[in-house]
Design goal:
HTH_TetR, 74% helix, single chain, Tetracycline Repressor, domain 2, 171 residues, mainly alpha
Length: 171
């Protein structure tokens, strides 16, 4: 059996962390649970992530990076930009549901480093969306971005709580 390279092993731990944090939350997750999910020993987790908090932040950063990448990959006319970005986010939510849960958890954790990572991730998405909407000539851009982000966060909460009725159906 060929052993995973160091980078592959780190990736496996990160993916295991995403899944375990999404299912158990931040405070109910231990590095032992992550190690078990990854099929490694707990001390091996610490070779790549010094603390549980560092692992959580890396997973949270991954979630925000994937959102930005999904939005950057949207190719659309200005008239369809908002709808196409919503579609991209919905597709991302289906492909990476653990990361959607992680965002909700990140908002609720009070540890300063995690709050800072959450603020940074949300600010990056807001700034990118603002520039993208401005470039598309969307009117009242600040209000439109706020509405867009608010709906996204509401979608995350709806998904996390398994409460789809929070979201109004399109006609």
């Amino acid at each position: 059996m060929v052993r995973s390279s160091k980078e592959n092993r780190k990736e496996e731990i990160l993916e295991a962390g995403l899944e375990v944090f999404a299912k158990r939350g931040y405070h109910n997750t231990t590095t032992a649970y992550v190690a078990e999910k990854a099929g490694i020993s707990q001390p091996y987790v610490f070779r790549f992530f010094k603390t549980k908090e560092e692992l959580f932040i890396a997973a949270l950063d991954r979630a925000f990076e994937r959102i930005l990448l999904a939005f950057k990959n949207v190719d659309s006319s200005p008239e369809q930009l908002v709808d196409k970005m919503i579609e991209a986010y919905e597709e991302l939510s289906e492909l990476h549901p653990n990361e959607i849960a992680l965002q909700v958890i990140g908002i609720s954790v009070t540890e300063e480093a995690i709050q800072n990572a959450t603020k940074k991730g949300l600010s990056n998405i807001q700034n990118y969306t603002l520039e993208r909407f401005k470039d598309a000539g969307i009117e009242d851009v600040e209000s439109e971005v706020t509405t867009f982000l608010a709906r996204g966060i509401l979608c995350n909460i709806s998904f996390f709580l398994d409460l789809p009725e929070l979201i109004a159906k399109s006609k």
